[in-house]
Amino acid sequence: MNKEELIKKWLDNNLNPEEQKAFEALEDYNDLIKLSNYSKGFKAPEFNSDEALQTVLEVTNSKKQPKQNWLYKAMQVAAVLVIGLGTYFYSINRNTNYITSFAEKTEISLPDNSIVNLNAQSKLSFKKHKWNTKRNLKLEGEAFFKVEKGSTFNVITSSGTVTVLGTQFNVKQRNNYFEVICYEGSVQVAYKNKYTKLKPGQSFLVINNTITNTSTANKQPLWLDNTSEFKSIPFKEVIAEFERQFNVNINTENVDINQLFTGKFSHNNINIAIQSITQPLQLKYEQTNKTITLKRE
Fold first, then answer.
1. DSSP 8-state class, residue 297
2. What are the angstrom distances between the C-alpha of 226 and each of 130, 242, 244, 290?
3. Which CATH architecture has domain 226-296?
4. CA 259/CA 245 separation, integer angstroms
5. What is the pTM of this model?
6. Contact predicate 293/265, CB 8 Å
7. Which of 123, 54, 129 is nearest to 91 (CA)?
8. How would residue 61 be classed by pLDDT, with cut points 50, 70 and 90?
């Protein structure tokens, strides 16, 4: 790997152990890292690793040209400042991301020891370096939160924002579906500039811009135990959740996907699960590899 590639990977914080040794052997290594300890007191500039690489190369290559020694040193220090500041602020301003795919769940421990369980095909992101002063997370998909008491804790979705101090709650945001269920403590839901407070057992549900307030006797969401449950939910939402949990495609023929469905299915056995969602609606099904077709009997 040449010098330019090493510096580029260093700027992206992406060196493997062997490349790190090669980078440390560069003639300019000490200059490149010398001011990293100075950078924390400066305001963050916009960082671009390609531009920073070009700056380094211009300075390091300038050794080949005769010049005043003091001018070279000044340019060298300026380049190190650019790289040091850029690398530091690029690093601290990056989001920490957790992503699950089809048929995958994961548990996440946040910096304050709050716990997040992320359901299938979901994404959670936050800025780790700001966590002590601003507990903000962005959620795409579904997650269950066990929040440690502390500063305000915000879960931001494309549909609305959930605000708490310390509690347990579930948030689900999928296309035109937005649901918040409080299991412990209390939560505040901001939706279209209106605020709703939920107590344990209460929920806030929006489907296609229609708001519904329901209740639950469960102590936590059933999907943590590999079960999806629905109460008067359009069948198309049931199909979408089934696809996420089993990584399959479901087609329908002469099936009203907007009819309401009440029931549940287990994530442990696809054959039992498909019967759980077809029998209550008197549907039959055919399966070919990862494609399932639902038909009216």
1. -
2. 33, 12, 12, 20
3. 3-Layer(bab) Sandwich (3.55)
4. 21
5. 0.70
6. no
7. 129
8. low
Distance CA(202)–CA(196), nearest Å, equals 11
Q: Among 31, 22, 17, which residue's Cα sits nearest to residue 2?
A: 22
Rg (alpha carbons) of the chain, rounded to whole number: 26
E-only strand ranges, 100-209? 106-109, 115-118, 123-126, 135-146, 153-156, 161-164, 168-174, 177-184, 187-191, 194-198, 202-207
Write down the pLDDT at residue 269.
Answer: 97
The 8-class DSSP code of residue 149 comes to: S
pLDDT at 173: 97
pLDDT of 248 > 70? The answer is yes
139 DSSP β-pair partners? 124
> For 71-86, what is each residue's pLDDT tens digit?
555 555 555 555 555 5
Q: In the CATH hierarchy, which fold is given to the domain comprising 96-219?
A: Jelly Rolls (2.60.120)
Delimiting residues of CATH 2.60.120.1440 domain(s) in the chain: 96-219
For 22-55, the pLDDT digits (tens) are 877 777 677 666 544 444 444 444 555 565 556 5
